[in-house]
Amino acid sequence: MRLGALLGPRYPGSPNAIGAGQSSAGESVVSGPGLLGAQARWLESLGYDSLWCTQAFGRGYGVMDPFVALSVAAASTSRIELGTAILQLPLYPSADVAYRAWSLQRVSGGRLSLGLGAGSVAAEFEAFGRDHANRFAAFEASVTQLRDHLRLGAIGTCELVDRSPTEPPPPLLLGTWGHRVESAARDFGGWIASGRYRGEAALQRSLERYRGAGGRRAIVSTVLAGSDRRVLAARLGRLAAMGFDDAVVLFDSDDSGEVVDPAAVRELVT
Fold it and tell me: How far is CA 250 from CA 18, 156, 223, in A?
């Protein structure tokens, strides 16, 4: 199973624990303007396979814009996969997403995976002036447009970026709690499941449906690291045994206020 990490989490009560330590270059990984770049370099040096950034700002906390954060990570690393987990597509014009995605695909050297979802929290839609009740229909319309924009590298006669005709667009992954896994299998390059808001029995059932529909890459995101390495090791082992291809860890503190060392977490997955 491949191991990923959520980059730069900002959750209530979290001291941003993955900033505690040093990068492979010996620089302190602390808060400040250099935090994201240092985190990205450090996690890549530890052997993590991917870095992801979520999108949230209407839930009592906020995280940075994923395209901004991942651009910093792209400039700070050389090999690690970069992904959105997930971007709420109905909040944006599809042309805007295509332009930013192709730009990030270019500056990262083709390392972007674009995880998309319909969104869930009404406050975020209200802030953007979007219709929350119509988000699933809006998602379907937007993703159809986005596919065309990314495939062509253009919107009508407007080229998005100066690119080679053979340069592939980023793969699209569907983030869903499990209700639409057949669509993820049929229409997307992979499925991103929630390891925080779905129990393991529900994850297992959804994964079986996804594989039964021909689904390929299955990613379980937002797996809370917490403070107990043994608990995390056991959970990652169960997720691997279920058949998930990737696990993306959230380095956030549990009730103890502690979080396991990312270097130790990397050793748990082979």
Answer: 9, 40, 6
